[in-house]
Amino acid sequence: MTPTPHLFPPPGPPSRRTVLRWGALGGTGIALGPLSACAGPTGAPGPGTLTLGLNRSLVSLDNKLNQFDAAVTVQRAVRQALTWIGPDLQPRLVLADRFEMTAPTAWSVRLREGVRYSDGSPVTVEDVDTALRMYSEVNGSFLLGLFPEMPTVEATGDRTFLLRTQRPVPVLDRLMANIHITPARANRPEELQSGLGSGPYRVVSANGGAGEYTLARNTEYWGKQPPVEKVRVRFVPEESSRVIALRSGELDVVDTLTPDSAEQLAGLPGVAVQETPGVRICQLFYNFRKPEGHPLADARVRHALTYAIDGESLIRDVLIDSAEATEGVVPLALQGAVRTGTYAYDPRRAKALLKSLDAEDLRITIMWESGEFAGDTSVMEAVVDMLKDVGVRASLRQFEPGGDILKWRQGRGGDWDVIGNGFPGTTGQALTSLQGMYGGTAEKERTRDTYMGYVIPRIERQLSDAATETDAKERDKKLAALQHAVWDTWPSLWAFAPKTLLARRDRVRGLALQPVNSYDLTAVRLEG
Fold first, then answer.
1. Contact 115, 221 (CB under 8 A)
2. Residue 50 domain-assigned?
3. Strands, E assignment, 196-326
4. Are 373 and 498 within 8 A, CB to CB?
5. By residue range, what is the domain housing residue 473?
6. How does DSSP assign 123-154, residue by residue?
7. 469 vs 69, more confident
8. 473 is a domain residue
9. Has residue 172 been placed in a domain?
10. What is the DSSP string of 370-413?
11. Distant-in-sequence, close-in-space partners of 471: CB < 8 Å, separation ≥ 6
12. Closest Cα to residue 212, out of 238, 235, 242?
């Protein structure tokens, strides 16, 4: 399905939802101030240059660690994978022209003839082998957790090889869409600052610290040359600044908008807003590294706390209907996802349960990185008020983009209780999201490569059984049972599935926003 522009009503007097939102925030000062109070970036794009304004800093053009959704659009323009996930959430061939399961534990792959990097050198089987090893060795990789096991490469010819695993990995063609290929000689087990790749663009300037890059057409590109000559990437953390810059023409595309900003932009001459259902889940996820005896190590306490959160109000009055309530442990838009339950709001019940579990007077710390999702600060402050109503005192710890939140997520920076975090559905499959979040083992925890310390052996065994099932119908049945089992562990205080939203100038055409919150830069063109 190709998303179409979503039309919002033109700006007008404050709607009932906006008024309710202001009331819900209780005068915390979160509402956007006048646009004139915020300075936007300077330097209007030229006629052949597309300028993107990202809400989070793109610290590198490598995706071993840096995988927030909008970054993938830029990273994939420079580096490519064997496959990619298309708008219909089905795998498509890119660097490979053949990718077939020939045995339960083997996939036969052939590299497309003539694929080259921007320096003119060919993409080789050795490059694929090295890429897999480098992704395996990097510490703290989100992508590593998606794989039940990493495949090994067995060359069978100059352009052909087998991907082998110990046990079946029936969605390996989807998983490999996340492994971007780099020349073996230039690859390392870390985020690469250089931009040598096989994509339609090459890097002509880069400032990872500032999150600013300039890309130009790759004249050695093996495919069709992209219509846009240059792409500038800007890091603009303040949403109001992104709005100003888009309105003035200094930016062509901005991502991760709140509905308030979308309403300001919709209906303006020369601006269009696009929206599509998303496959990302945003959670207030518990810290599963708590020692035995700690209240949050008890699933009953975690469950009790969920009754304190008025999710319906948060979606309606704070997120302004830019998200959907989750009824499972992964978004229902993912293939294989099932409904497992809902988050119910009942503060009296929360108080009673906490009292019965000797968990009164809890103090918790909630942390998150700015820009994790639209309206993040508003959500967090509203959650603090809701917890206060049931006797739980919560404090907030906010990290700026590019900070050291990864170290804290791994339990290396200090203690915390709940994290506001998003998890993308990069393959379109529930299986891989489940693997990434709930497939933790004691071995992975030793290197801090689990998702917030979530290590429950019975869940991992059940997940492993489902992940290696080659019969699709039987795999879906096992995955359904697994999702119910995960729900019963109460991993999140609350969760929601945000809709994917961006705005663009009218001169930007051919931008097809996908459910995975990225788009193909080679399809974008500029008019005027």
1. no
2. no
3. 201-207, 212-217, 230-235, 253-255, 271-276, 281-286, 323-325
4. yes
5. 280-498
6. P-HHHHHHHHHHHHHSTT-TGGGG-SS--EEE
7. 469
8. yes
9. no
10. TTSSTTHHHHHHHHHHHHHTTT-EEEEEEE-TTSSHHHHHTTSS
11. none
12. 235
The pLDDT tens digits for 386-418 are 999 999 999 999 998 767 888 999 999 999 999
pTM of the model: 0.79
High-pLDDT (> 90) share of the chain, %: 69
**121 Cα distance to chain centroid:** 32
Tally of CB atoms within 10 A around 510: 15
Alpha-carbon distance of 56 to 372, in angstroms, equals 8
Task: Report the mean per-residue pLDDT for the chain.
Answer: 88
Total number of domains in the chain: 1
Distance CA 197, CA 192 (A): 11
Q: In what order do the strands lie in the sheet with 253-255?
A: 201-207, 212-217, 230-235, 49-54, 253-255, 500-505, 271-276
- Beta-carbon contacts of 287 under 8 Å, excluding residues fewer than 6 positions away, are 296, 411, 415, 416, 417, 418, 419, 452, 453
Could you tell me which of 459, 496, 503, 515 has the C-alpha nearest to residue 253?
A: 503
Q: Which residue shows structure tokens 């399961």?
A: 101
Q: What is the CATH number of the domain that holds 432?
A: 3.10.105.10
Q: Which residues, 6 or more positions from 356, have their beta carbon under 8 angstroms from its beta carbon?
A: none
Residue whose structure tokens are 């932009």: 265
Count Cα neighbours of 238 within 13 Å in the Cβ-side half-sphere. 15
Question: For 28-93, what is the HEC assignment?
Answer: CCCCCCCHHHCCCCCCCCCCCEEEEEECCCCCCCCCCCCCCHHHHHHHHHHCECCEEECCCCCEEE
Crossing angle of helices 430-438 and 472-487, in 10° steps, is 40
Nearest to 74 by CA among 235, 267, 190, 242: 235
Note the pLDDT of residue 490.
98
Q: How many helices (H) and strands (E) does the chain have?
A: 15, 21
Residue entry with tokens 């379109």: 428
Nearest to 61 by CA among 233, 242, 226: 233
Query: How far apart are alpha carbons 346 and 354 in whole angstroms?
Result: 12
Tens-digit pLDDT profile for residues 287-329: 999 999 999 999 999 999 999 999 999 999 999 888 999 999 9
For residue 346, what are the contacts with CB-CB under 8 A and spacing of at least 6? 307
Q: Distance from first CA to last CA of the chain, Å, rounded?
A: 28
Residue 97 lies in a domain: no
How many residues would you count in the chain? 528
Place of tokens 């498509």: 92
Model confidence band, residue 127 (pLDDT cutoffs 50, 70, 90): very high
The 10s digit of each residue's pLDDT in 174-210 is 999 999 999 999 999 988 877 799 999 999 999 988 8
